[in-house]
Amino acid sequence: MRSLPSRRVFLGAVSAALLVGALSGPAAAASADTGVTLTLVAYSTPQDAYARLTSAFEQTLSGNGMQFSTSFGASGDQSRAVAAGLDADIVAFSLEPDMTRLVSAGLVAKNWNSDSFKGMITDSVVALAVRKGNPKHITGWNDLTKPGIDVITPNPFTSGGARWNVMAAYGAQIRQGKSPRAAANYLKDLFSHVTVQNAGAREELQTFVGGKGDVMIAYENEAIAARRMGARIDYIIPDQTILIENPIAVTANSRHAAQAQAVLRYLRSTAGQTIFATNGYRPLLPAVAKTFHFPTPKVLFTIADFGGWDTVTKQFFDPQTGIMAHIERDRGVSGGS
After folding, report:
1. Start-to-end C-alpha separation, the chain
2. In sequence order, which ranges of the chain are alpha helices (DSSP H)?
3. Looking at the domain assignment, is residue 229 inside a domain?
């Protein structure tokens, strides 16, 4: 597991396209020489980052004359869509199980995560976004279950970001010394304060910026992006939180595998990781990380600390028997497959 070095956030401006629709057309016109269009299917939160990254790649020698067609949405929905036949050359998801679904379907190679990055493209942590000035005095996880607190987090049966949020909340209770049963009871209490569950993290951000809720559990990069847009919010890195690791791969049936691999190399280059970092993601490259500073959580844990995604998915997110399935059914919220 990679370490999480200290970094400095570059407070540059971001595009107003942060909150635009989930599906965009070609990023640039293809040249008559190549006519290559690469299709990127990704989860919702990095939409603005990928707009900048694909544009920058097109200015490189490898990207000259190339164009991109992009689709963004809730991570689980996107993964299921590709499994059902949605065309994709590159897939980028919120969490590993959405990638392994495509491995099982024969659409991503079994060794997709055998490189030095273990198949990942960005890091982040789970943060708590609050209204400007923090009027409800939110300081950490225990404040989210106080009377009258309205919490915003997506549906964990469609959103990868929501699953990170659940595991951050659960893991924080464990790291505070609580038993697994007490930590699961905390999740039940927490979700009794959740009044809106959007399909994905980007919709969650729109809901919160639109004025709904007292606190939003979210990717740190989403809170950073919202602040840069001028949203009147602050955010807190709780004392105990989880390291978010986001996977990427070229599909096994891509007709332009060589070009798609060139894109992945660019995304992991100094230039690519710098663009990610300026959009609020924690860079993977130590050389880039040294030029950025993000708050270092007091206690940082990983999904591996709970047995990895195979174990976690069965225990928490199985649509019939998982902890979250029981919690959501009791609340009358529909789950997913």
Report:
1. 29
2. 47-58, 75-83, 96-104, 160-175, 180-191, 201-209, 220-229, 257-267, 270-278, 286-289, 308-312, 323-331
3. yes
Residues 6+ apart with CB under 8 A from 194: 151, 152, 153
pLDDT bucket at 69, cuts 50 / 70 / 90: very high
Number of independent structural domains in the chain: 2
pLDDT digit string, tens, across residues 102-152: 999 999 999 999 999 999 999 999 999 999 999 999 999 999 999 999 999
Task: Determine the pLDDT at residue 34.
Answer: 57
Compute the C-alpha angle 129/125/38, nearest 5°. Answer: 105
Does residue 266 share a domain with residue 208? no
pTM of the model: 0.86
On whether both 179 and 205 belong to a single domain, the answer is yes
Count of C-beta atoms within a 10 Å radius of residue 287? 10
CATH of the domain at 270: 3.40.190.10
Nearest 5°: phi and psi at 293? -135, 115
C-alpha 34/C-alpha 62 separation (Å) is: 12
Pairing of strands 233-236, 194-196: unpaired
**Rounded to 5°, angle at Cα 248 from 236 and 291:** 50
Q: Domain limits at 91?
A: 16-122+246-289
Please provide residue 186's backbone torsions phi and psi, each rounded to the nearest 5 degrees. -60, -40
